[in-house]
Amino acid sequence: MEVGIKVIAEDIRTQAARHVNSCFFTMVAVDDARKPAPVPALRPFTPDERRRHAAAEVRKSVRREMEQRFEALRGV
User: pLDDT, tens digit, for every residue of 8-17?
Assistant: First the structure.
């Protein structure tokens, strides 16, 4: 599961807000034995949900590709 986080800083005197950081965390559900457990698949409905879901799929693909490249380097 991927969770997106957006951090906003606010100047308490002027109440001006600005975006200071964004990131994505990958989380894994675990069972009582602390083994990875399946979760229901997300079903995006709105255009925004579909856009975010597609972007997450791209990030997942890039992570897997990078992992394969690093594994290939370790094998050299």
Answer: 999 999 999 9
**Where do the structural domains in the chain lie, given as residue ranges?**
2-74
Q: Give every CB contact of residue 28 below 8 A, 6+ residues apart in sequence.
A: 1, 36
pLDDT digits (tens, 9 = 90+) for 23-58: 999 899 999 999 999 999 889 999 999 999 999 999
Question: For residues 71 and 47, what is the distance between their CA atoms, to the nearest angstrom?
Answer: 36
Domain 2-74, classified CATH 3.10.129.10, yes or no: yes
Q: Which of 28, 54, 24, 49 is nearest to 39 (CA)?
A: 28
